[in-house]
Amino acid sequence: RVPNVVIRRLVLYLRTLVDMDIRSDENLFISSQELGERAGVTAAQVRKDLALFGEFGKQGVGYHALSLMRELQAILKVDRDIAVGLVGAGELGMAMTRYNIRRYNQNPDYLFRMAALFDIDPEKIGKDVEGVPIFPVQEMEERVRELNIQIMTIAVPAAVAQEITDMVVRSGVKAILNFAPIKLTVPSDVHLYSADVSLDLQQLAYYL
Amino acid sequence: RVPNVVIRRLVLYLRTLVDMDIRSDENLFISSQELGERAGVTAAQVRKDLALFGEFGKQGVGYHALSLMRELQAILKVDRDIAVGLVGAGELGMAMTRYNIRRYNQNPDYLFRMAALFDIDPEKIGKDVEGVPIFPVQEMEERVRELNIQIMTIAVPAAVAQEITDMVVRSGVKAILNFAPIKLTVPSDVHLYSADVSLDLQQLAYYL
Ligand SMILES: NC(=O)c1ccc[n+]([C@@H]2O[C@H](COP(=O)([O-])OP(=O)(O)OC[C@H]3O[C@@H](n4cnc5c(N)ncnc54)[C@H](O)[C@@H]3O)[C@@H](O)[C@H]2O)c1
Ligand SMILES: NC(=O)c1ccc[n+]([C@@H]2O[C@H](COP(=O)([O-])OP(=O)(O)OC[C@H]3O[C@@H](n4cnc5c(N)ncnc54)[C@H](O)[C@@H]3O)[C@@H](O)[C@H]2O)c1
Questions:
Q1: Which of A33, A165, B71, B93 has the fewest CB atoms within 10 Å of its CB?
Q2: Is B193 helix (H, G, I), strand (E, B) or coil?
Q3: DSSP secondary structure of A22-79
Q4: Distance, in angstroms, between A62 CA and closest chain B CA?
């Protein structure tokens, strides 16, 4: 199992390449030095990370940018559509959903498709967000199967987050992005990542 | 200047210690091995990072957990209140603001205090979020000075994000947390961090 911090760096390398908009340039090469500078790591770290997955670059020439991008997309499994669900169509959930829909519609390399939202509020159930339906949370298991949802985002209040996570696990989803500010427990075959805006604030505080 | 990726790891070490709720245990020691495992990095990486800032641990004994936590708070400058502002009191802005207020009220180690929101919508200006006022964006410069706002969060639509960022820089703020999905340019003495939920999704996709 490759450590999570390595995967996080690969995601940054891919993002760096996508941001450079290299899609049109067949002849562009990029050195580990340049890729490292843009991603905030050393050139040696770039070479060490990529070497875990195969031989991509040539000594002295660097990496063929377009091929490296395709390789990273394949490693990170973003070379195909991934259906994403979200529980808790509140303020955070709605903002995240609209953001994802916009990115998906604008960028061909962005492959996270919002498939469904889930909530318990009768005012919200039966509505949709730019075409993405809001289902009752009781229908989670059947909708996950029907829509092949592979990642579920948790945007419910902390008090119900563990109970909702257990439902998500029972429905067969193996990857969870959690926003609720509590420590969740999941079985060892489920991958959980807890996002937290305060980490970003703490990082900025250092530079004051 | 310490590289950003090192600061990001220090934030994780601090968060790990805060999450272990060690505040009450004067006699707790933690090894670089255990701290590394909880934070997702190698023991050697922990030692290398901490050594940049001084001698904290003893060979074979580990780090005194409470002292290490205080040292990290001092390094990351979170041993004092930091006033945070936010521009764009929309769905994301409101969710982030309420989240920060709740964390600040619940946890004595959480030192980011929401001081003010800014917006252009007449329906929102003059209101407040749990006591935090929403000011017109034209008043930013004077309110930043009056409230000593040190970090500004950007939660406006991408189309106006650069224009708003320029206003924030003119008002004297040196640290910006950006959520708008565009590349912003800031002067070299301003530190900018762009959060992006799609990075979290891409990291999870690897494990599917
Ligand atoms: N990690 C971060 O950086 C961060 C930032 C902002 C908010 N948050 C967290 O995100 C969560 C959502 O915040 P918000 O501001 O959108 O709250 P909100 O109250 O606006 O939304 C919560 C939604 O969850 C729904 N809900 C409640 N119980 C449910 C259940 N049992 N099953 C299904 N749906 C249920 C509600 O109907 C509502 O639509 C909170 O836990 C908050 O602390 C985290
Ligand atoms: N990075 C991420 O992961 C992520 C996730 C969700 C949303 N977003 C982004 O966050 C931003 C906000 O999203 P939202 O869903 O809250 O949008 P929203 O439309 O609900 O809120 C935008 C707010 O900005 C205000 N505003 C508009 N122009 C302004 C100006 N010139 N000065 C001051 N305020 C102004 C509006 O009045 C509104 O209150 C968008 O750019 C969106 O793409 C990013």
A1: A33
A2: strand
A3: -TT-TT-EE-HHHHHHHHTS-HHHHHHHHHTT---EETTTEEEHHHHHHHHHHHTT-S
A4: 23
State the maximum Cα–Cα separation within chain A, in Å, rounded to a whole number: 62
Domain ranges across chain B: 4-75, 82-199
Q: Which stretches within chain A are classed as H helix?
A: 4-19, 32-39, 43-51, 65-75, 91-106, 140-147, 158-170, 197-205
User: A179 with A154: CB under 8 angstroms?
Assistant: yes
What residues does ligand 2 touch, defined as CB less than 6 Å away? A 95-96, 98-99; B 87-93, 118-121, 137, 155-158, 160, 164, 179-181, 195-197
Q: What is the pLDDT of residue B138?
A: 98
For residue A185, the model assigns a pLDDT of: 93
Interface test with chain A among B7, B114, B197, by most A beta carbons within 10 Å: B197
Closest-CA residue of chain A to B19? A183
Residue nearest to atom 15 of ligand 2 (CA): A95
Q: What's the average pLDDT block by block, 10 residues per block, for chain B (208 residues)?
A: 84 86 81 88 88 84 90 85 96 95 86 96 97 98 97 97 98 96 91 88 86
Q: What is the pLDDT of residue A153?
A: 98
Fold of B4-75: Arc Repressor Mutant, subunit A (1.10.10)
Residue B61: predicted pLDDT? 86
Give the nearest chain A residue to B1 (CA atoms).
Answer: A207
pLDDT tens for residues A51-96? Answer: 998 878 877 889 999 999 989 988 988 777 899 999 999 999 999 9
Which class would CATH give B82-199?
alpha beta
Kindly list the protein residues whose Cβ atom lies closer than 6 A to any atom of ligand 1.
A 87-93, 118-121, 137, 155-158, 160, 164, 179-181, 195-197; B 95-96, 98-99
